[in-house]
Amino acid sequence: SRGASSKSGETTVGYSAGALDNPFAVRLSKLVVQKSRAGGLNMLSAVNAGGDPAKQVSDLNALIGRGAKGIVLHPRDSDAIVPAIKAANKAHVPVITVDTAANGGDIYVQIRADNVAMGESACKEIGRLTGGSGTVLELFGSLTTTAGAERHKGFTDCMAADFPGVRVIGKNTNWNTATAADTAQTVMSTSNIKAVFMASDSVMVSAVQKVMQNLGQWKPIGQPGHVGVVTIDGSAESLDAVRAHYVDSVVSQPIDQYGSLAAQYLKQAVAGDTLKPGPTDHDSEIVERNGNLEDVLPSPVVTITNADDPTLWGNAS
Amino acid sequence: MMSAEHTPETMISVPDAPNSGTRDGSASDRAPRKRRSWARELSLLPAIVFVGIIGFALSANFLTVNNLLNNVLVTSSVLAVLVVAESVILISGNFDLSLEAHVSLAPMIAIWLVTSQVGGGSGWGWSPWAAIIASVVAAVAVGLLNGLLVGKLGLNAFIVTLAMLILLQGVTTGISGGATYAELPESFVVLGSARFLGLSVQVWIALLVIAGAAVFMTRFPLGRKIYATGGNIQAAAAAGIRTKRLTVGVFVAGALLAALAGFMLTGRIASVTATQGDGIIFTVFAASVIGGISLDGGRGSIVGSALGVLLLGMIQNILTLSNIPSFWINASYGLIILAALVLNYGTSLRTRSTR
Amino acid sequence: MMSAEHTPETMISVPDAPNSGTRDGSASDRAPRKRRSWARELSLLPAIVFVGIIGFALSANFLTVNNLLNNVLVTSSVLAVLVVAESVILISGNFDLSLEAHVSLAPMIAIWLVTSQVGGGSGWGWSPWAAIIASVVAAVAVGLLNGLLVGKLGLNAFIVTLAMLILLQGVTTGISGGATYAELPESFVVLGSARFLGLSVQVWIALLVIAGAAVFMTRFPLGRKIYATGGNIQAAAAAGIRTKRLTVGVFVAGALLAALAGFMLTGRIASVTATQGDGIIFTVFAASVIGGISLDGGRGSIVGSALGVLLLGMIQNILTLSNIPSFWINASYGLIILAALVLNYGTSLRTRSTR
Amino acid sequence: MPAGQDATVPAVDDAEHSISAVGIQKTYGSARALDGANLRVRSGESRALLGRNGAGKSTLIGVLTGLVQPDEGTVRIRRADGSFPAGATTGAATGAIACVYQRSTLVDSLSAAENISLRAHPRTRWGAVDWKRLRHTGGDLLEQWGFAQLRDREAGTLEPLERKVVEVCRAMVTEPRILLLDEPTAGLDEGATQQLFSQIEAAKARGVTILYVSHHLAEVFEICDTVTILRDGRDVLTKPTSELSIESIVTAMSGTSPAAGADRGDVSTAARTRVDPAKPAVLQVRDVCVDGRVSGVSFDAPAGAAVGLTGLNGAGHVQIGQVIAGQISAARGHVAVKGRRVQAQVADAIRAGVGFVPEDRHVDGFVPGMTVVENATLSILGELITPVGTIDTRRRASHYARQATAWMIKAQPSQNAEELSGGNQQKVVLARALASDPDVLVAINPTAGVDVTAKDSIYTSLAELRDAGKTLLIVSTDDDDLAFCDQVLVMVKGRLDSRIDAGYDEDELIAAVQGVHRNTPAAANQDNNSVTGAFEARTPSHPLSSEETT
Ligand SMILES: Nc1ncnc2c1ncn2[C@@H]1O[C@H](COP(=O)(O)OP(=O)(O)OP(=O)(O)O)[C@@H](O)[C@H]1O
Ligand SMILES: Nc1ncnc2c1ncn2[C@@H]1O[C@H](COP(=O)(O)OP(=O)(O)OP(=O)(O)O)[C@@H](O)[C@H]1O
Ligand SMILES: [Mg+2]
Ligand SMILES: [Mg+2]
After folding, report:
1. Contact present, D114 and B224 (Cβ < 8 Å)
2. Residue C54 included in any domain
3. What pTM did the predictor assign?
4. Contacts of residue B280 in chain A, CB cutoff 8 Å?
5. Residue D92 sits in the same domain as residue D23
6. How far apart are CA D203 and CA D208, in angstroms?
7. ipTM of the assembly?
């Protein structure tokens, strides 16, 4: 059909975002589109399901209708995305997922990081900071999103198992900045908090920093009254705060890698290459899980010692 | 007091009919009225044509049978059922925000009753059909509660159903613990995959609900009583209509339809999530009001609001097919709706713009 | 059969005159009326006390000066300003969903004008104050457009402002490309950190807006004209009130206040995100309506709706302080609101429950 | 027999009665609307229910139909099946009782025909609405009034008179055994009133029991067999009409000996020479056209005169009043007050010195939810202010107190305006019109729904205004209103047709509104449509352009 090979024979491909309502998803979509176009593919502009899995199904149909020969998906929900993938399978269009894996259908490769492992990394950092005692505030994301639920699970399971002496006050922020600020304000002004864990610094760190400043609890590491801060994501602000000795540890997502790998795999998929399990050239291993291949990327823990690492996405711009 | 020469004829004033000599000049009188009543129901057609032309200009894929039948109509089906439910409630002079909650609650209750404890369910192992019936009973109970609080106690419908929405969404999250259920019995997904005469069964259900409601609301006394109650509740009561009972009934019917919409959506996404349908209520109101339903009650038609659904579905589809950068898609959506409104003002909406 | 004690004069009752000894003793008559008008404004007090007791029972931290002043009030300030804006618009008989959009749009425009291109801004390098003024001008323009479409063209306020909301949210996302701005000039964050007499400046702003609006709406002719327009637009017009102009003015004022709320929120979260304020409009309506504002216009008071904000703020605070599992927090929130509504019905809401 | 208790009421054989209300109490907040009222009406009797504004008539009617829940007392209504059970009747006895309420109870969004059949839609075999039959039924009933063309109109688009007709048709459609009529003639013109009377006569002939509320006492003698008078929520007198006179009714209603009766005569025979062509015109109406309604009307009215403006329904007299008040705009022509042109805007008309009593008090009259004082001063809100710009409640209260006295408003100033009885609401609207101290008062149906005593006091107050040099334009179809005027302008089909000086006899007026001129020396000039004589435009050279009036 018409759009299949415009632009001097470039292959048409598409990107479907589950939602573009947070900086992370926005950056991911931009990267994938940009890198794919740079790689010689005719990448259509990203479509956005606005958090509605049903709309993601129709978005996918629309992309296929417009001649996409390969599609990168950023699922909002691992299960609800399955009918969309099956629809693509039926049209013989290869699908690649990024960030969040899908739980069914035939997928060329799932590029993802392990959100449970991120939560566990954060837990280990919190345990180190608190010495296994005291009260910790956990600001987690919406539990109806895969990232929110898995980070929360990784963190709380690990805390219960490894640091039973630490009391965790867990509060849902629904990935909402103002809710994070309100919750931090209320809890930190009424309880003696030894450390804070934020499930997404790109959503929460500025707001919580402001609250802690107003409460006099935003102190450099080593100063009396310092409250430990551990975050996931690795936004530029959070890395700045690490360098400024305020934030202790950041679990950085491999978002730049998502972008370049998605473009690379997409090219291979539309060319008909097949992937095989085994180690890759970028410190990870392709494994098979539930009948699909996965490229699970590591999520490095950033502290003052490696905060300037240029491969971290927060240091990119 | 008045003399006998005062015949009724001289009292009639029909300033816009040139020869108002005949009192019942029905022929000349009826034709324009009929046309006007149709015109009002179909007043969205200019906007639909306008959007259709835009769609044709923007994407060759838009005006294809496949796209219109399998994308526009299928993706609009769930919305259409919800819009019918909300329209009936709005026509009755009420308001129900909690319809949105049924979209996730009903399938969630059903799947929770079916699923084993390991799978995140109750572990009671109900049969799928028993579970579906139980979830429908729950929906009826919620509708009944809304109806009693609003109709009998006279509490404000907006705030009661808003609190109910928050409560029910909370219950859905609470039951599921945030998990998504993807292992569904066949009976849960049949609404998503079955086809009939080449069209998805979703579309057929939506068409059936629209047609049924339209006939019910225009042709049956109970439907007319719903209009009367919404138009002027005191007048309706004075005419012997049991407005309280009717209010309760309308809320229950709305809840039932919303639960149906929930199962339709579950069929489409082949899973049950705690957030399915979240935020759809805004679109439901948008479609109803664009389709001519008055938020003050008593005005508008089911056919009109179904056209509102079609219009929004077309716009969504065109935006998805278009190459507009995703960051500007929402802005375009809002802009097109505004443009359609102003355009319709220029054509026919003017007649119902009086507050 | 007939006694002569009723002269026509005695039938005129002018109770504000001290001794109008009439048939049913105006003196005893007047007092309850006055009391009733106060009682109506403060009808939420029982619910507030009820929630306060629950809070006290659930958490020792709730009933502390620090918590009430620094947490409940501070976290309610942005909401309060928005609720005042929406209340005035609702009292005038209108409806504005797009207020929510200003919360992100105004700060976004301002920061975009200030920020360099590398930082994701326009690169025009405006001074912070010029940028803030420009964003306020934009808010006024939006308010004006809403007002003209609704007031002059007579389009439906719900659907116009819904389309406007979608459009403006889209513009915000479009401008920012979805990015969050965390490098803010000092003038953007001063509203978040400054304190005065031991209270956050946010609280002072909210109190000032509430007090100003309350005095304006009850004591000034223009405020009363807004009530009259919302109560019966035809009667207001027949009494010489320029209802169209007034409608436009009300939308502009609402947009201005909403932009202020946006800057307050930015001050508190020390950043500008495209999604800040998303979904708050539901809470705004909830607070207004719980506080006694009628969606039909002409009824309710600013003080009442401010109490609505306080009630919701208290409930949120208690839920945050409590140990309720997070999955059930939302359900509890809805349940408490419903309980407060029914409780208030038992005490005083009954008087305004007539539709 | 001002008794309130069951026991004090003489036992009556219930078998003869269709309505029995005993010891009815109803209080609204602190206001006692009914205070032990009793009402028993025999089957087939036609009873007038009379009383001053606020006496409780409408409340009692509401109690009988079940719309108002009494605090105490028993109501019995004879059902269609002949039973006579206690309790309200709204749903159960739909066929037996029908009511025309004082307040409009039409559903605006439905057609006139559907409103008429709202109680019971005609059904087809399958239970669906039989639209054909519904429209026939409605059309037939409306046709008797000459209003067949209203059948498919939305009720919301009807004018006050037309609405009333539809409501009467709705009451008649079920062929009820009991018919309650609460001020059905308020706002009706003569023709429609006669039509109503003939329908009532027909119903009486069928043995229908009728309860009739009106402030037009003459009508009572025409229609009713017996009279019950309510005062302060109590029934103070029940007698056959033949044993009563207007004076004795007025006395019983007010509880005083009548001094008012004398006023009546005074007013109707008031000086007739006020409309002196030599006096300068305060109000000038020039070549006013309203689309489809009014074509080229011009007249002048001098200071210190009361000018009546009348016509049949749709003749355009109401529109002229609305144009002068700035409520609607003229397609052509203009209005000037003291030489100053008035824009088509109420605010400007008020500034120019026009006070306005609109046609329908429920629609245009008052703001529900606002107090009586506030409603009465709504048009001068911006003027009664303190130096800081807030509303000066003291001055407002005293301003209102004066108005309340002048118009005999029986209400608490802080009372919600929607709680007032119909007549008192009308007086509040009158007070509002005069709040701005206008030079010209345009009053459409100023005494609709106002009781006799209050009506007289309104005329007295209007006479005072006139004597103080104001110009009054009374747009009305009410005989008494027109009798008060010094001169009556009659409109026929959108044109000014004739002028009649005070002292006319009734037949002359009736003929004039029909456009029939039997003995009309001051015949209309059909060519330029302005009435000659006193009302001839003194500045005929006015260049008229349509732009100026838009
Ligand atoms: N809904 C209400 N709320 C408060 N007071 C009311 C209400 N309805 C009626 N009243 C009061 O009850 C009294 C009786 O009113 P009602 O309408 O029965 O008078 P009425 O005899 O019909 O007078 P009118 O001739 O003016 O129509 C009045 O004082 C009125 O203010
Ligand atoms: N408001 C309405 N809604 C739905 N259907 C209607 C409506 N009005 C009319 N109809 C349909 O139109 C059909 C024909 O109406 P029509 O105007 O021909 O009635 P009629 O009895 O012939 O009128 P008339 O007595 O003036 O000749 C009705 O049987 C009915 O099915
Ligand atoms: Mg009355
Ligand atoms: Mg008229």
Report:
1. yes
2. yes
3. 0.84
4. 52
5. yes
6. 5
7. 0.82
